[in-house]
Amino acid sequence: MVVHGSFSLLWTNSVSRIAINQLGDNQQVEQSFQAADKQLRVNRQGGKYVLLKLSDRTGTIAGMFWNADEAVFESFERGDYVACRGRTQVHNGNLQIIVQEIRRLTVADVDPGDFDRFDSAESQRLTDRLAELLGSFTNVHLRRLGAAFLSDDDLMQRLRLAPAAVSNHHAYPGGLLRHTIDLIELTQLVGPRYESLDVELLTFGAFLHDLGKIEELSGGGEATYTDRGQLIGHLVIGVQMLGDQIRKLESAGDPFPVDLRRQLEHLILSHHGLLEYGSPKVPQTLEAIALHHLDNLDAKLAAAISIIESDVGGDPKWTNYNPAMGRKFWKPQS
Do residues 209 and 268 make contact, with C-beta atoms less than 8 angstroms apart? Predict the structure, then answer.
């Protein structure tokens, strides 16, 4: 085991640790994390440093190991448990750790429960709710298509574990299923307000809209983009997945209406709303317009709530400025 500096603590799973979401500014840290990512970089003066992404079950935090070298960088791998000594600080509105010492740990040195962000009980509840929602359609073609997706055990297991994003909103194992259910239920609340909307079509579009993320993002741990995700993206992957399930139905002698397939494809391809946001088509049907705005609502609210809950600023009323969202947020007052 490689040890850097004077790190001599005896790390065992009995050592108490502070959850990432409980860390504050200017706090001494001597505890375990999971190294979700690491990058060896060079600063403007030519010095090397390691940029870290450290995680536990409550979230992630950036780590900066200044004046590092290849030996530090190669002493552990992405996904390893590591012991870190350092101090927290707020930089550009975000909490980070200035790491002074780091060493690799084994699984025996930690409590894996401190790092597992997957809630199996909640996942089962959401899976049951999805089956209930997809089984409720009066449109027989949508009901059979929903049953085809639900019977694909590999796809459903991956959906249960998948994050909805690398960062920003629902960026945790199971986040995609959470976002999907919330969006479906939003469509069922809002859709009936407009007589011209096909609520069942809109609802199925909500199920499909981000399904390609199970291929775009790696699941089961800290999210990263796959090669397929980088090259193709989840909108096109989602259309391909829809085509796969329709082919299964048709090969079993159950033809699927061409117009209905086109409507579903359009919902997937247009849900980002604008060409500059990655949609190859802008929303051109009533259901696509509704899906885009409801999806944006759920994502933006989830992101804002996460920012508010994780804010480490001293102001009791306002968060620090968030560069990704371009604003501060008012904290709800108890």
Answer: yes
The pLDDT-based confidence of 72 (bands split at 50, 70, 90) is very high
Closest to 85 measured CA to CA, from 41, 34, 32: 32
User: Does the pTM of the predicted model rise above 0.90?
Assistant: no
Tell me how far apart the alpha carbons of residues 69 and 274 are, in angstroms, rounded to a whole number.
43
* b/e burial code for range 224-238 (CB count within 10 A of at least 16 → b): beeeebeeebbbbbb
Across the strands, what pairs with 29?
Answer: 86
DSSP string, 66-113: TT--HHHHTTS-TT-EEEEEEEEEEETTEEEEEEEEEEEE-GGGS-GG
Domains of the chain: 20-114 (2.40.50.140), 120-308 (1.10.3210)
pLDDT of 3 higher than 50 = no
Dist CA 193 CA 295 (whole Å): 17
Residue 35, SS3 per DSSP: strand
CA angle 250, 229, 93 (to 5 degrees): 135
Q: How far apart are CA 200 and CA 219, in angstroms?
A: 29
Under 8 Å between Cβ of 100 and 88 = no
Tell me which amino acid residue 296 is. N
Instruction: State the pLDDT at residue 103.
Output: 94
Partnered with residue 88 across adjacent β-strands are: 97
Please give the structure tokens belonging to residue 241.
């997945």
| Euclidean distance between CA atoms 328 and 60, whole angstroms | 20
Q: How far apart are CA 88 and CA 86, in angstroms?
A: 7
In this structure, are residues 258 and 246 in contact, taking their beta carbons and an 8 Å threshold?
Answer: no
Among 202, 213, 218, which Cα is nearest to 283's?
Answer: 202
| 68 C-beta neighbours (distance < 10 Å), count | 21
